[in-house]
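sorry to bug you again but im stuck and you know this stuff better than me. below you get a single protein, a line of residues and a line of whole numbers that encode the local backbone shape. mainly i need to know what kind of three dimensional shape the backbone takes. anything you notice is useful, everything is just below:

***
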Amino acid sequence: MTHAQTGIYAEPNLHGVTLLLNVMTDDVAHVRRKLARVPQLLEDLDLRFSEAMLNGYIAIGSDYWDVVYPESRPLQLTGFPDLNDGDRQAPRESVDLMLCVRSDRFDVNFQAARTLMEWLGHDVELIDQINTFRFMDGRDLLGFIDAPDNPRGMRRREIALVNDDPVFKGGSYIFSQRFRYDLRRWEQLSTEIQEHVMGRKKVTGERISEAVLSMVTHTQKARLVDAKEQPLELLRQNMPWGNLREQGLLGMYMSGKPQHVIHWLKNRYIADEQGDYDPLLDYIEAVSNAAFFAPSIDFLKSKSDISR
């Protein structure tokens, strides 16, 4: 049985920390050994702080993959798609590694991040640390329930993981978007206008009937179906981030079928024949975007000497 990194499909936590890293050494074999040890370190920390429900994963950037694992590449691993259309921009960022830790305790996340960074040592450079948190009852900072149509239960694992590739089974294609919000501008809108932008009721999350809407909504453009009404398989592991100076959302989209995520993103960003796109993009800005692959634990071990 293939062992996936559990942080990919885990249920939501209260706190998270995401580390974006660049590799500073050319010793590929050394890097492989370091990466292969990360899941075990996370498991040890989970056992130590069992009440915190700690989970996490290490993912390799699309540009760095061929450096560290040149002999085999996930068939559909590409860079973040080009989503620039009109005023809607999604600048691509090249990142070697993404390390994500989540738990129900901020202090445990801090300890876990320190432990993992000590293990990786001077072989990596920390580009950014993004502290995330659960807001209210699972809402976005805009005040609406985040991803109400997300898959639940075992379906999360089925959708998030690769199942049709024997080499990369149990891995996951991950697309990340770091959004910055202008909350003052958003909060100047009436609740009614906010609801019409989102296509849902703010308190309950109930969809608003299209018969009473006068515009294309975020809910319509972010539906998890394609043009033929076939389901798009993706799991969103989003969490708010921010301080009193700036705030936003760290969007994480996991899937065993990355073409589904790309279709979903393009449907939101690229205007259709009627000139319609996701209206929420007029109020939020994706300041950095990247594509990764999070291999299974078995793959990480097989490419190092950790199991020998």
Observations:
- The mean pLDDT is 95.
